[in-house]
Amino acid sequence: MPAGAFYGVLAFPVQGVKVIRVMLQLELQPGAALVFGEVHGPILRERTRGISYEAWRKVLPHLEGLALIRNLRNLQEHGLLDRREVQDLLLAKLADPERVRGWRIFPHQWLQALYQLRPGDGVAQGGMRPHPVYHALEGALEASVPRLDLEGETLILVDVSGSMYQRMSRKGESTYALAAATLGAVLYRQAGGRLFGFSDDLIPVPFSPGDPLVAMVEHLLTSGGYGTCLERALGKALRSFEGRRVVILTDEQVADDAYRPLRPWLLEDDRRRVHVINLAGYAPLAFPQNGISRIGGFSDRLLELLPLLEAQDPIGWMKAFGREHGLEVG
């Protein structure tokens, strides 16, 4: 048996959850352990080859979080997603906002689950009808991101240059470009405004905020992969933009002077804001000037920082947010 693998059961790894007695071959991520019939530690990565229909049927009610959405393709291949009772079970789980938020799943992980159920290119064009669970996944993705109270129009620029296609972690498959494109699409869905990608040049996104998120993200990811000419992209995007804020999702590995087109735009109105979200957290900054807010790193609640950064009373905003979400803010 390979190192790190064992024959056991598929279960959602929350401390204290009893193991379901269905024999499956599993592979544990570092730090996870099976102890006296209880699962502790990170979520399991499933090895699913050879698992029977009956095994999936028995374990399905107990799947939660990533263990659930990462196995939708397996459920589909075994014919379970065509059964009404299975669809009802999945829809009930995915339609519960509190449950979904409690899973703490990143937006790009939801998007990867959407890709599993996407029946070809027709969905992007609105042609082929997606699986009923597909729409529930989109709803769950949006429910996982709290509503943003942002006044005025937003310009969103997503970096899809070559450096953004590096993996976010050594063992994962998600790239910085996928995370940035997903966050950009979600922000566009919520705040409206304008969404562009950029690499060697500005990349228009020919979708409205209500169009499928998968279509927006796929368009961005298949349009980049080259240099990082942010100055050129901003120069074109800001020509006719009279909105309140610019949000740039990037790793800040730029090849030109990106602040040059921003400076006159900012000086036209003191209410205007620029937010640079550096998903990779690299040390070199593309915008060393004052007056531009920066967010470094990645979180499932990253977009919630935008209203805070624009609040006239940040402490009052945080207390109000705490009351709304049942949190104590000192």
Plain-language structure description:
Helix 8 links the parallel strand 6 and strand 7. This protein has a 6-stranded mixed beta sheet with strand order 8-7-6-9-10-11. Strands 1-2-5 form a 3-stranded antiparallel beta sheet, with no helix packed on it. It has 13 helices and 11 strands. By secondary structure, the protein is an alpha/beta fold. The radius of gyration is 22 Å and the shape is globular. Helix 4 runs parallel beside helix 7, helix 8 crosses helix 9 and helix 10 packs parallel to helix 11. Helix content is 35%, strand content 14%. The protein has 3 domains: 62 residues, no CATH class; 84 residues, no CATH class; 169 residues, von Willebrand factor, type A domain (Rossmann fold).
Brief descriptors of the model:
3 domains, 13 helices, alpha/beta, Rossmann fold, six-stranded mixed beta sheet, 330 residues, globular
Chart the SSEs and their pairings.
Layout: E1 5-8, E2 24-27, E3 33-35, E4 38-40, E5 45-46, H1 53-59, H2 65-69, H3 72-77, H4 84-94, H5 97-102, H6 107-116, H7 132-143, E6 154-159, H8 176-191, E7 194-198, E8 202-204, H9 213-221, H10 230-237, E9 245-250, H11 259-267, E10 273-278, E11 293-296, H12 305-310, H13 314-324
Parallel strand pairs: 6-7, 6-9, 9-10, 10-11
Antiparallel strand pairs: 1-2, 2-5, 3-4, 7-8
Helix pairs in contact: 4-7, 6-7, 8-9, 10-11
